[in-house]
Amino acid sequence: MNLLLLSLIVGLGAGATILAGQAWGARDAAQVRRVGAAQVRRVGATAFVAALGVGLAVAVAGAWSAPWLMQALGTPPDILPAEIRYASAMLLVMPFVFVAWAGLSLSRGTGDALSPMWALLAATLVGAVCTPLLVAGTPLGAAGVAVSALVAQLAAVAVLIRRWRRDGHPLAPGAGWQDCKPSAAIARRMLRIGLPAALQMLAMALAEIVLLGLVNRHGSTATAAYGAATQVLSWVQFPAMSLGIAAAIFSAHAVGAGRRDRLPAIVGTGLRLNAVVTALFVVAAHLLAPFALRVFLEPGPVLEQAVAIVRTVAWSVVLLGWSHVLVGAMRASGAALVPALLSMAAIVGVELPVAVALEARFGLAGVFWACPAAFLAMLVLHGLYYRHKEKKDGLFSQPGVALGAAGSSAPGA
Asked: Rounded distance, CA 282 to CA 161, Å?
């Protein structure tokens, strides 16, 4: 249930980003406020209450639910108690994560990228200080990670609100909000954009659970290596995800301003930046993985296994970044459902079957080749759909520009 709520909030956050960006592109400050009210007050507050209720219910019933879930995932017995404590504690933190995510999404949608940056920096610093202190210095153990996450999210929200008020941002709490009323029309538009993104995220999360189940078959050392490797890979994915978000925001601004002819240049810039910036992160991951992973693991076979996982998957993040740029621009242009379905098709039809097949043939090493296979499938499917929409109705193109065209002009989305 928590996974479902998280997917819904992230999806609605994507919808809010697009709608706020379109309004900002048209310089319609009133609509920006209405999007903010619909997202933060209605959707965010509802999700906060619902998630808090579910999280409390799961925490109270943790003696039944958490052990069952961890055992169903095949968690090795020697780490099962710690995993149960961690899962139960994290459920209580999710409502605060939802609210922080909504605020960050809205801020980016209005073109304010600095406030989310400072908010996330504050959350990162707080988490970096609190996590080791709470895990190693208190009886909380693994549950200390959840407490640290709570403090970090509160810090992020505090920084975001402070900067909004200082800059007189239209989304700042206080003056002007008494005129903002939730709009059913905005909520429907948000759902049309956000639900496909939510379904895509849910499919990806479920796929990760399946992969984790395959990894857990190989014992606690494999689980530890996989967990550490995913931490490093998440750093590699940051530029790919950020460029996809940026492409969506700038595309939404162009659509709101009635300048769809700008979309090809926006997408092309995103594709080229991904080829350079994400590639640099990939190279750094390949070279520095043995050192970065020592933050989580002691030198030995587990560390070597984690390095192998990072080097197997990291290069394919460039493919994922290109997909994010294309999907972000298409979503901002009104095409949200089909790109999400194509991503889900790549996950269900490529990633999971490849993981199962290669694990049976090559063991643990085969599981991780499923990620590059899925990222490649996503890029091909999204690129083909882009070409289809471009030729069919020209939504994402301007004269003389096509996907893969040579020259300085970049492909549209």
From this structure: 34
- Residue pair 382/326 in contact by the 8 Å Cβ criterion: yes
Distances (CA, A) of 298 to 118, 212, 301, 311: 32, 21, 9, 18
> Using CB atoms within 10 A of its CB, is residue 160 exposed (0-12), middle (13-18) or buried (19+)?
buried
pLDDT in tens, the chain (413 residues): 445 545 666 676 777 777 766 766 655 555 555 544 444 344 333 333 444 455 555 556 554 566 777 777 677 777 777 777 777 677 777 777 777 877 777 787 777 878 888 998 999 899 888 888 887 777 777 778 888 888 998 999 899 889 988 887 766 776 555 545 556 666 677 778 877 887 887 788 778 878 888 888 888 888 888 888 888 888 888 889 888 888 888 888 888 777 777 888 888 899 999 999 999 999 999 999 888 888 777 888 888 888 999 999 999 999 999 999 999 888 888 888 899 999 999 998 999 999 999 988 888 888 889 999 999 999 999 999 988 877 776 655 443 333 333 333 333 33
Cα 397 → chain centroid:
27
What does the DSSP 8-state code read for residue 314? G
Asked whether 228 and 297 are in contact (CB, 8 A), the reply is yes
Which structure tokens are listed for 22?
A: 């379109």
Rounded CA gap, 94 and 54, in Å?
10
d(CA 197, CA 341): 9
CB 203 within 8 A of CB 343: yes
Going through 232-379 in order, the beta strands assigned E by DSSP cover none
Q: How many residues does the chain have?
A: 413
Buried residues in 23-61 as b, exposed as e (16+ CB within 10 A): bbbeeeeebbbbbbbbbbebbbeebbebbbebbeebbee
Residue 362, both tokens: 């090559």
Q: Name the residue with tokens 């009210």.
A: 37
Q: Copy the structure tokens of residue 391.
A: 């030729």
Token output for 394: 């020209």
137 and 107 Cβ atoms separated by less than 8 Å: no
* Alpha-carbon radius of gyration of the chain: 22
Alpha carbons 162 and 154: distance in angstroms, whole number: 12
Tell me, rounded to whole angstroms, the distance of Cα 307 from its chain centroid: 23
Question: pTM for the complete prediction?
Answer: 0.71
- Cα torsion 287, 291, 297, 299 to 10°: value is 100
